[in-house]
Amino acid sequence: MIISDTLRLALGNVRQSKLRTFLTTMGVSIGIASLAGMVSLGVGLQDQFVGRFMQAGVFDAITVSSGNNGGLPALLGGRGRGRGRAGRGGRAGNPPVEGAAPETARPEPPALDEAAMTAIKGLPNVKDVFPNIRVPLQMHLGEFEELGTAMGVPMSAKDEGAFRTMSAGAFFANDTDDSCLLSLDMAKRINETDPKSLVGRTLTLSYTASTATPGAPAPTPMPTMPGMPNLGALLQMKRVDRTYRIAGVVEREPGAGLGGFGFANVMIPLSKAMEIDGQVVRSAQALLTEAPTKTKTYTSVTVKVTKAQFTEDVEDKIKGLGFQAFSINDALQGAKRAFIILDLVLSLIGSIALAVSSLGIMNTMVMSILERTREIGVMKAIGASDSDIRRIFLVEASAIGVLGGVAGIILGWVVGRAINFGANIYIVRQGGEAGNLFSLPWWLIAGALAFSWLVSLVAGSYPANRAAKLNPIQALRHD
After folding, report:
1. pTM above 0.85, yes or no
2. Binning pLDDT at 50, 70 and 90, where does residue 257 land?
3. Residue 164 in contact with residue 227, Cβ under 8 Å?
């Protein structure tokens, strides 16, 4: 029996029992809809979780520090500060202890300066390197006045992370533009009723600057009592006011310092932030105790890689240069493993309905054998082989499985859209952000169809073998 005859006979038999075929197909479709819906929920949740972090720009970024300053200062950014060195046999600032064992000399970590940034930028798969600059200042607009922090943002951050979508206005026109961006929270504190109307207005940023020239001799000490600090340095301080046009309002604050830009109320171009950082005096103690340096260093810089999968490799290379490096890309891998387990659990739950529907296919095929026993005997009498009979029943089962799979995917998609619509209404009312909770990628569609076809073949194997083994003489005698 040729293939075309097998297909014609099998599909004709399927059409003859329309009601039974319809009910069996609906059972398969419900099973596939349950399976596809469960898995698409897991995929949708994974896309929402991972996608938001990827858009925030934290998984393709590495925070690098020199090791001179750790903890919070390194995350806050700014210029590097010198530290006291340990004396022989004692800690920095403490006299050596008599009879104490000498401490092992630790190698001095490399300075995180412009030369180091150039070396890091030359590494493979590195897209950008920029210092984390955050400067304390006072903000003034009309009657509003507040102390805060301004953050330097590079031009490469345009259309990335928090700057992908703006609540109002636009990103900086260029790196030398005297403009700034406000966080939405900051804009609401200035104008709660209409924060978007601040775009185009002028914000004044004030800070205390030092007039000391880098590399110049320290100021001549004023006559003071023995043990008093150099109060003459306090005369080298002045207030600086700068005006910036508000170019836009950022809907959400940029990601935290670990691979991002850090929290700040105001964002200005990176070159402007570096200029202010070179002048600002963070405290009177710092001005009294720190001397200007010729080489500008940073406590931390951010390294952006071309793709998230290169983060670990670039991080290892940076550590090989003697710097401390940290990224949260490992958290992404852990999250993906957790979602894989979730997908497996949801798949097992969804497969229960499909297993029940496979019993329906088997029942339909067995009933078909009982009804067509004489027909099977006639086909064998005129020369049909056991394999021909087996193939006819397997094609019938496959047709039911494929039709049920297509109907199940459509049903699962419709139900998923309905649930997603209702869930988003509830989420938005609770103050959350709407998203796509169900995702049906092409590989899930293809996998569901293939699985439906495979289950139908397995379910139809027993009835097909039973039909193939019928004795033609007994089949012809069957009433």
Report:
1. no
2. very low
3. no
Residue found by looking up tokens 């394999």 in the block: 387
Distance CA 266, CA 134 (A): 10
Q: Kind of pairing, strands 237-250 and 179-183?
A: parallel
Bridge partners of 245, per DSSP, are: 179, 202
Q: What's the angle, vertex CA 299, arms to CA 296 and CA 305, rounded to 5?
A: 100
Of 287, 309, 327, the one marking the end of a domain is: 327
Q: Are residues 374 and 384 in the same domain?
A: yes
Does residue 115 sit in the same domain as residue 197?
no
Task: Tell me how far apart the terminal alpha carbons of the chain are, to the nearest angstrom.
Answer: 26
Residues 323/62, Cβ–Cβ less than 8 Å:
no
Domain-embedded: residue 354:
yes
Burial class of residue 353 (count of CB atoms within 10 Å of its CB; 0-12, 13-18, 19+):
buried
Please write the tens of the pLDDT for every residue from 328-362. Answer: 765 666 666 777 777 777 777 767 776 777 777 77
What is d(CA 409, CA 21) in angstroms, rounded to the nearest whole number?
18
What's the domain count of the chain? 3
Given a contact cutoff of 8 angstroms between Cβ atoms, the answer to whether 64 and 318 are in contact is yes
- pLDDT top residue among 376 and 286: 376
Do residue 280 and residue 320 come from a single domain? no
What percent of the residues of the chain are helix, what percent strand, and what percent coil, each to the nearest 5?
50, 15, 35
Across the strands, what pairs with 269?
153
310 plus 371 within the same structural domain: no
* 285 vs 231: CA distance, rounded Å: 10
CA atoms within 13 A on the CB side of 421: 6
Evaluated on CA atoms 160, 163, 166, 168, the torsion sign reads negative
Give the burial string for 294-312 (b: 16+ CB within 10 Å, else e): eebbbbbbbbbbeebebbe
Judge if 280 and 412 occupy the same domain. Answer: no
Distance (Å, rounded) from C-alpha 136 to C-alpha 237?
A: 15
SS3 of 139, please?
strand
Domain region containing 247: 133-218+231-295
Q: Judge if 212 and 309 occupy the same domain.
A: no
Check whether residue 341 and residue 441 sit in a common domain: yes
Q: In angstroms, how far is CA 108 from the centroid of its own chain?
A: 36
Q: Based on the domain organization, do 32 and 163 belong to the same domain?
A: no
